[in-house]
Amino acid sequence: MQPFWSEHYLLPGQEHQGSRAIAEGLERAREGVAEMVGCDAFELVFTDGGTEANNLAVLGLAADVPAGHMLISELEHDSVWGAALSLERGGWEIESVPCQDDGVVATEAVCQRLRQNTRLVCLQAANPVLGTLQPVREVADACHAQGVLVHCDATQMFGKLPVDIATLRADTLSVSGHKYYGPKGAGALYVRRGLTVHPVRFGESREMGVRPGAENVPGLIGLGAASQLAARCATEASDRLAELTDRFVFRVRDMIQPSVEVACETAARLPNTVTLLLGTEARQVQRAAGQLIVSTARSAAPADQMTRCLAAIGKSPSQIGGAIRVSLGWTTSQEQVDRAADLLAEAWDQLVESRR
Amino acid sequence: MQPFWSEHYLLPGQEHQGSRAIAEGLERAREGVAEMVGCDAFELVFTDGGTEANNLAVLGLAADVPAGHMLISELEHDSVWGAALSLERGGWEIESVPCQDDGVVATEAVCQRLRQNTRLVCLQAANPVLGTLQPVREVADACHAQGVLVHCDATQMFGKLPVDIATLRADTLSVSGHKYYGPKGAGALYVRRGLTVHPVRFGESREMGVRPGAENVPGLIGLGAASQLAARCATEASDRLAELTDRFVFRVRDMIQPSVEVACETAARLPNTVTLLLGTEARQVQRAAGQLIVSTARSAAPADQMTRCLAAIGKSPSQIGGAIRVSLGWTTSQEQVDRAADLLAEAWDQLVESRR
Asked: Does B6 lie at the interface with A, CB-CB under 8 angstroms?
C-alpha cells in the first residue's frame, strides 16, 4: 500500500499516465480479490467494507425487480436486515427464517417459505458469533431451481476456511477486508456476471457505474494483497486454527469447569471462532482478565449481534450474560492460547473467591 | 496513521482498553477536523469521503421533513444532484438555480426561487472546475430568515482558503480528506447541533447512530491530521498559491497567446484552480504535454463535471473542447509553474507546427 500513500496521489479514470498506473494497480487488486472469491475480476465492485457491500446487494438487487417477498435468515448482520427492512415501505414483504438450536439455518426452513413472488434470499456463509457454517450452496441450488436470487454475506468466512463462489453458488457475495488482515475501509461485492445491481449511492460514475465516490486506493490495494494471502493460506490456517481452538476449549474446561458450554458445539463451525457459555457474569470475567480481548453481549437494549444470535439458538438472558466469544488469528501461538486459558481461569477463580 | 495500520487493529466501541485507545485516537482526529471546520467535534460525522457526505446531507435532511421543494445550484457535484433527483419519486420537487456568466450563483437567484415549501438549498463553497467562490453566507442568511436549511459542499475549499463554519453559516457541510492532502476514503459531514440527519446506510449503530459500518480508522486518523494542517496553513498557502497561479497565467499568455481566456476571470476564485480556454483541442495539447497533469473535458455523453460547469457559464462545445484545468498544490514551486507553462507552450507550438 505504501507507494499509494506516498507517491501515487491520482485517481483512476483520468487522462494521464499516472492515473493509468493507479487504475492498473486497482485492477491488480481486483484480480487479487477475484483469486480469493474464485470469480472474474469484472464481477467485483469495490466498496468501503462489508456494510456497504451488504446494503448494495440487498437494495441494489431489489431495485431491479418489482417489489415482492424476501427471506432473511434471523442470524444475518444488521447491514442485511436494516437494508431489507427499509424496503418494506416500498411494498416488500420481509420474512425471517429461523435457525435451529444448533445455530444452522436448515435448507428446508428456507424452501418451505419460498413463494411465487420470492425475489431474494439472504443467507450468511458463517455466523460471526456462533461460528456456524450455513448451507449456502444447498439453499442457492434450491432457490435457483425456482428462479430466486441468493445473497451471501461471506465476510466471516474468508481467511478462515478455503471457500469460493463455485462452492457457495450465491449470486452476490460480500467481502470485508479487515476481517482477514486487510485494511479497514475496503471491501467488495461479487455480482454474478449478467446480474444487474443498482447503485445505492449517488455521484460521479465509477466502479462500472455501480459505486460512485473516489476510490480508497491504498485501502483497496491492501484488500487485493490480503485477498491473495487469504486465498493461499486459508487451508493451512484453517487446520491450525481448528487445532488451537480445540486446545483452548479443552484447557478451559479442564481448568474452570467441565460444564462450560460451547455454543453450537455439534454444528460445523469456523475453525477460529468459539462462544463459551461460562455460567457466570461474563463481563466480570472480561474485566478481571484485562489482557484477554474477548467479546461479551451488551445487556442494554437494543439487542446487539451477540445477544440476537444467542437468543436465536434459544439461550436465556442469563445464559447470554455468561457468554464470551473468543477469536483466534493466523498469528495466534499455542503459548498465547494457553495463556488465554490461564487468564480466563484466574479471572474465574478471582470471581469465585470474591463471592465467598 | 502508521500505528493504526501496524499495532492498533481493534475498532472503537468494544469493551477493552485497546479499543478505548482507538476510540480516543478517533476523537482526537474528530477534534482536528473540528479545528478546521470551526465547529464542535460532536457536530461531525465521519464518512468515507465527500460523495457519502453529500448523499448523507441531502437524503438525511430530506428524510426528517415532509416532501417539498429543494433548490440546487446548477454547479453542484453529481453526488448532490444525484441524491436530490432520487427524491423526486418521493414527491420532492427539485429545482435548479442557474449561475451567472461569471460562474457565481447570485444570492438573488436563490431568493427569488424560495417558496413556502422550500426545505433545503444546496450551494457549494467553491466550484472545482471554475474555481469560483459562491455566496454561501449570504444565501444561508437569506434562507435562515425563511426557515430554510442550507447544505454546503465545501470539499474544494479547505486547505486552499482560510474558511470556517462561522463564515459560511451552512447547516451541513461536506469535507473530503484527499482534497487537502488527507488520505482517500475519509471524509466528514458537519451537522449543526440540534439538527437531525437520518442515516442513509443500514447496519450496526456507529457514529452517533448516523453512519453504520466499521470505521476506516487509519484513514480517519489521517483526516484529522490533514485537517489540523489545513487549518493552520490555509492562510499562508492561499497567498502563495494565488501568486503562483497568477504567474502561471501570465506566462501562458505571454508564451502562447494573449487571447487565452481564464474562465470566470473577474469573479472571486480559489487561489489554486484555473481553467484556461486555449482555443484549440485541449486533449491534443494534454497528450503532447505528457508530463503535465491537467484535466480536460470528456467529449462523450454523459456530460462530465467539467463540461457541465463550462456549459453553465455559456461556453460552446468547441470552447469546452479547448479547456484545460490546472491545479496547484502546497508543494508546487515557482520552477514547476514555469516548467508547466513551458510544457504547455511547447505542446502548443508542436500542434501549430503539425498543422502547417
From this structure: no
For domain A2-230, say whether CATH 1.10.10.60 is its number. Answer: no
Longest CA pairwise span in chain A (Å): 74
Q: Which amino acid would we find at residue A290?
A: G
User: What is the β-pairing status of strands A44-47 and A187-191?
Assistant: antiparallel
For B219, which residue in chain A has the nearest alpha carbon?
A185
* CA nearest to A212, candidates A9, A13, A42, A62: A13
Q: What is the pLDDT of residues A232-256, one digit of tens each?
A: 999 999 999 999 999 999 999 999 8
How high does pLDDT run on average in chain A?
95
A120-167: pLDDT as tens digits: 999 999 999 999 999 999 999 999 999 999 999 999 999 999 999 999
Fold of A235-355: Aspartate Aminotransferase, domain 1 (3.90.1150)
Per-residue pLDDT at B164 exceeds 90: yes
Domain boundaries, chain B: 2-230, 234-355
Quickly state the pLDDT bin for B298 (edges 50, 70, 90): confident
For residue B204, the distance in angstroms to the closest alpha carbon of chain A comes to 6
**Which residues from chain B sit within 8 angstroms of residue A296, using beta carbons?**
15
Roughly what angle, to the nearest 10 degrees, separates helices B334-355 and B217-255?
Answer: 60
CATH homologous superfamily of domain B234-355? Aspartate Aminotransferase, domain 1 (3.90.1150.10)
Nearest chain A Cα distance for residue B145, angstroms? 30
